Amino acid sequence: MHTIRCEIDTEYRDAEAFAGLAWRWLVEGAERLEGESLQAVLDSTGLVEESLTKAVPCGPPGALWGFLSADSVNRRNGRITHRSKVLTRKNLPLLRKWLATDVQLAEVALYRLDAEGMPGEALVRLSVARDEDSEDWIRLGAQAPEGRFAPADQARWTDLLRDFAQEVDPSYAQIGYARTLGRTEHEERVGPPLPGMTLPQSRRLLRGYEWLMVVPREIAQQLGGAEAIRAAGFHRVEELPGGAVLLQAVPEFDGFTGQAVERLWQVVRPALRPGMPRRFSADTEAGDPPSRIWYADTV
Fold it and tell me: Do 137 and 12 meet the contact criterion of CB atoms below 8 Å apart?
């Protein structure tokens, strides 16, 4: 089963703003995407705290379980400190304390334990990261198995992206299939190889395009603004505060194929990094998520 990833990119402003944004994305995001499961985890008993440091069952088979973690960096010597705890109501306030340090990556994740009491089915995993190669940027992420992204679930994800995008003035955002190293499919098939190489240019060149995406204000203006984008006949086009444009190509995620992909590509191609998308070997393509880009050069 493939993984769905929501991502919002924006500039790092200061430590206080980062800590507040990260806390709300991780905790409010988990509540909005998997609220019933989150509350069950917070109120659960019988979870084993040592399960994060020892190869022991995390709790009763079939129980809901989660963790919270943060990696902080010491700027003087570059040393990384990793902190993690089982997700419980008692431990959750620790996350706010950790976020007050110089955090590179923080996560909250929910799972269902398998027959051996080990993490099995993933429910959702939320993250806040400062990119290793471009620390002036923040990446808000949320991932879940495709099976937990049925049409009835998709509005929760699109609303979460929209609400946070309204706040942070994103340089890019999308919901699509998770790709290697956090790349968009356009980055994966056209380049460059690492998101840290495209983030600094993401207000001038789109990182990619997807079923649901946010075009930053600078590029939206280049494309003629919300009205010009709306004229292409997409399912949803909404101008956000500050001028960024939220674009939903078709009503449901699985409907973003064929002509829908080409129509979106035709609109955004002036802002895409030029290059002919590569096709990979048959074995690689067979294991990857379905391709959702248009195979033509932008020039």
Answer: yes
Reading the block at residue 190, the tokens are: 């056209």
How many Cβ atoms are within 10 Å of 236's Cβ, its own excluded?
Answer: 14
C-alpha angle with apex 99: 105 to 5, nearest 5 degrees? 40
Nearest partner of 194 among 132, 137, 125, judged by Cα: 132
Answer for the pair 68, 52: CB distance below 8 angstroms, yes or no: no
* pLDDT tens digits along 260-282: 999 999 999 999 999 999 999 88
* Cis peptide leading into residue 192 (ω within 30°): yes
Q: Higher pLDDT residue, 43 or 206?
A: 206
b/e per residue 109-139 (b: at least 16 CB within 10 A): bbbebeeebbbeebbbbbbbbbbeebeebbb
Q: How far apart are CA 290 and CA 209, in angstroms?
A: 14
**Ramachandran class of 153: left when φ > 0, alpha when ψ lies in -120 to 50, beta otherwise:** alpha
Strands 212-215, 119-130: pairing is: unpaired
Tens digit of each residue's pLDDT (9 = 90 or more) over 7-52 = 999 999 898 999 999 999 999 999 999 999 999 999 887 788 888 8
Rounded-to-5 percentages of helix, strand, coil across the chain: 35, 25, 35
Q: Is the separation of the CB atoms in 278 and 190 below 8 Å?
A: yes
Residue pair 167/201 in contact (Cβ under 8 Å)? The answer is: no
Say how far apart CA 208 and CA 131 lie, in whole Å: 18
First to last CA, the chain: 35
Dump pLDDT digits (tens) for 162-189: 999 999 999 999 999 999 989 999 999 9
Closest CA to 29 of 124, 147, 112: 124
